[in-house]
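Morning run. Coffee first, then this:
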Amino acid sequence: MRVLVLEDNELLLETLEDFLENEGYEIDLAKDGEEALRLSYKNSYNLYLLDIKVPLIDGIEFLKELREYGDETPAIFITSSTDKESIAKGYEAGCDEYIKKPFDLDELLMRIKAVLKRVEPQETIKIDESYSYNIKRKRLLKDDQEVKINLKDLQLLELLLKNRGEVVTKEMIKDELWRNEDVVSGGALRVYINNLKKIFGKEAIENIRGLGYRFK
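And here it is:
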């Protein structure tokens, strides 16, 4: 399980890292919202653990942006805020749980396990005898072990799998991977296609000249 922790208190950040790694979680750390966004675009996570009052982009705005782009990864807010308005804003932004500082680490662990359990069962697409893709959690698995690939590769794979056997046009891919961006690089798309071919084999994805691609 991979967790992104957003926290600007360095001592608490180190404490959470040591504690959660000892519990078997893989941890990425961010001290401000912009750093957290960069990590979330680069990697896929099982859980977000977010302080609210952090520099540059606060935890609530960070989560709002992810939710707007369809990221449904479970999120827990860790904060010293105790007023009902802050708590309401957290849930409106799309958080799954809320824990107030100071807190007991064992209580935090129980909340993490409870949140992760609530998101089960997971909807899974069987790709072949070895590979499967978890739609809800955005995870590619090989023999039940997660395959680490970047977010754009995952988005492209999901689009191809949902339209398996049919042509996925370049326009459909543009809308899914780049959304409102004006400039789309054809070279970048070929890189993502090739990344998937390296995993599933060259014959798995057919290039339909002038149109797009088909996942066999």
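The first helix runs from residue 10 to 22. Good start to the day.
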